[in-house]
Amino acid sequence: MNDSRRIRACRHRLEDGEAVVLSPGPNLTYLTGFETSPSERHFLLFVTPGDEPVVVAPAMYAEQLEGVPAEAELWDDDDDPRDVLEDVCTAVGDPECIYVDDRMWAQFTQDLRSVRPDAAYGLASEVLEDLRIRKDEAELEALSRAGELADRVSMEVRGRGKEVIGLTEAELASEIDRLLTEHGGEEPAFETIVASGPNGARPHHHSGDRVIEAGDPVVLDFGASVEADLEAGTARYPGDQTRTVVFAGDPTAEFRAVHGVVREAQRAAIEAVEPGVTAGEIDRVVRGVIESAGYGDAFVHRTGHGVGLEVHEPPYIVPGNDRELEAGMVFSIEPGIYLEDAFGVRIEDLVVVTEDGAQRLNESPRRWSSQ
């Protein structure tokens, strides 16, 4: 059977009578190394415990699917893809439980239900989350490169100092995007955030036409995707880093104090990371520092999120998450304090859990001054 190590791991998590059915997206890419965008045409990968994986795809994909570790069942535009689904379900043993991709379009789940109405249905994350949550060597290498790239751009932007004064947020965001690709990124991993002055109090601010002024705290949140060579195919892994910088002039005393609190909260959280500690405990460390400083109500989001094929994925560093950390997990630690109509401060690094602690994947300066 010509399946990849990841497909074998998925198959071993399934019992007789079960199947995972994936549509284009991170889960399919994780198992096969094949990337394509979702469309109105049926493109579905079937994985069962005892049979070779089968991909149902439009005939136009025939050449692209060469090398994909699955048998291809192709259909033409004048075919009814539900007939193909019926045939494939029969061929893979009429699964009694089907785990569908968490983000599969409703059209495709409904068509699966129409051909197997008596099957039980669940989510593919029940099978794949435990596989994807621990990164392998190739993934860690790619995430490390993405971190180094973000560091390089961060230091270059910081080094411009007073040259940034007079630019709009959108202009600086465009320049950051240019640098990310110039220095080797495939593309920005998400919409770059440049939030200056009072706009920094909005955690997911969209960079706009506000002009950056001397003394403004500026929240910079960005990263680029880099390509990783996997056992089967390739995939893109993102960087994600946040710094809060004053490019010129003197910020307020309150900003200096708040920046110090956020930096200390992040340091304490990273020091607390080790296998066996829960995600919720890391969140609690961060909140403890911020609450002790009197800013508990101003920390309005989770402490962090996993990073892999997606910028946001498990493990989520949130209150009450009892998921124990394991070596190979990668996630952000990004405490923030947001004071309405004044400023915001966020400092974010990605960390990988090691056998006895944590390793940062970002090492650019975290101080607020540009020099």
Strand order in space, largest sheet = 4-3-2-1-5-6
Main structural class: alpha+beta
Report the average pLDDT across residues: 96
Please state the second-level CATH architecture of the largest domain. Alpha-Beta Complex
Q: Percent helix among the residues?
A: 25-40%
CATH topology of the largest domain: Creatine Amidinohydrolase
Give the CA-CA distance, first to last residue. Answer: 58 Å
Q: Characterize the largest beta sheet: strand count, sense, and whether it forms a barrel.
A: 6 strands, mixed
Q: Spell out the helices and strands N to C.
A: HEHEEEHEHEHHHEEEEEEHHEEEEEEE
Annotation, overall tally of beta strands: 19
Number of domains: 2
> Going by CATH, what is the homologous superfamily of the largest domain?
Creatinase/methionine aminopeptidase superfamily
- Nearest-angstrom radius of gyration? 23 Å
What can you see in these coordinates?
With 371 residues, the chain is of the alpha+beta class. It has two domains: 5-131, Creatine Amidinohydrolase, Chain A, domain 1 (3-Layer(aba) Sandwich), CATH 3.40.350; 133-360, Alpha-Beta Complex (Creatine Amidinohydrolase). The chain is built from nine helices and 19 strands. It has helices spanning 5-12, 26-32, 81-91, 106-115, 125-132, 137-158, 169-182, 253-272, 279-292, and strands spanning 18-22, 44-47, 54-58, 71-75, 97-100, 120-123, 187-188, 193-196, 218-222, 224-229, 234-238, 241-245, 304-306, 313-317, 330-333, 336-339, 343-346, 349-353, 358-360. The strands form six sheets. It has a six-stranded mixed beta sheet with strand order 4-3-2-1-5-6, sandwiched between helices. It has a three-stranded antiparallel beta sheet with strand order 7-10-11. Strand 5, helix 4 (106-115) and strand 6 form a beta-alpha-beta unit. The longest helix has 22 residues, at 137-158. It is elongated and about 70 Å long.
